[in-house]
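Self-study notes.
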Amino acid sequence: MKVKHGFVMRDVAGQTVIIATGEVSRTFQGMIRVNDTGKVIWSGLNDGLTVDQIVDKVIAEFDVDRATATADVETFIGKMRDNGFLDE
C-alpha cells in the first residue's frame, strides 16, 4: 500500500498539509492538515512500509504504547483509504 501518485505532503506556514497535484487536483481541490503523528504515518505510507513498520516508527517517535499506536495508524490509514488517497 502506498500513497497515490499526485498527493504530496508539504509544510506551509508552520503547518503540515497534504495537497493534490497534477491530474489528481481536478478531483481533489482541498488540503488536509496533519499533526506530527500523521506526518510519520504519511511518510511511512509514502515509503511503502507495512502497517507494523509504521507502528514501530510511531512508537519510536512518540511516547505511546503499541495498542494506541496501532489504533492510531489503522484509523489514519482507514481515513486515507476511504478518501481514495491510497494505491493498494
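Second protein, same conventions, sequence then structure:
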Amino acid sequence: MIMWEELIQKAMEQLEYSYAPYSDFKVGAALLAADGRIFTGCNVENAAYTPSNCAERTAFFKAVSEGARDFKAIAIVGGRHGIIRDYCTPCGVCRQVMIEFCVPEDFQIIAAKNRTDYKVYTLAELLPGAFSPESLGEAEE
C-alpha cells in the first residue's frame, strides 16, 4: 500500500517541473489511482492566464488519458518560488474536476508542508453541495 509520505514525496518532486513564470507559485501533485498507479502533475502557466493548468488537473488529465477512472487520494504541495510554507489545497476548478471521477466521501486530499506535516481532507469536506454527474440524472415526471 502507498503511504501518504511516499505520495507527498512524489508531489514535492514535481515542483522542479512547474512552469510558473507569472505567479512564481509552484505546485506539485501526485494522484493515487485505485489500481496503485501514481500520476503526477505540476502547474503550467500561460501569459493569457486562462489557459493555465493546475497541478491537480494535470495529474487527473494524465491519468484519465491513460485509462484510469477510479482514484483514492491526491497529495498537493506548493509555494512561492517552490518553497513550501503552508498547506496547499485545490482551487475550485480542480475540486470540480475531482468530483467528476471521485466518490466525495472516500477520496482523500492530502495538503502537505512536507512528508510528515500534512492535513487530510475528504473531497466532500472541501466541496459540499457539489454539482456532480448525479446532478444530471433523469428528471422525475
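Instructor comment on the second fold: The first strand starts at residue 25 and ends at 33.
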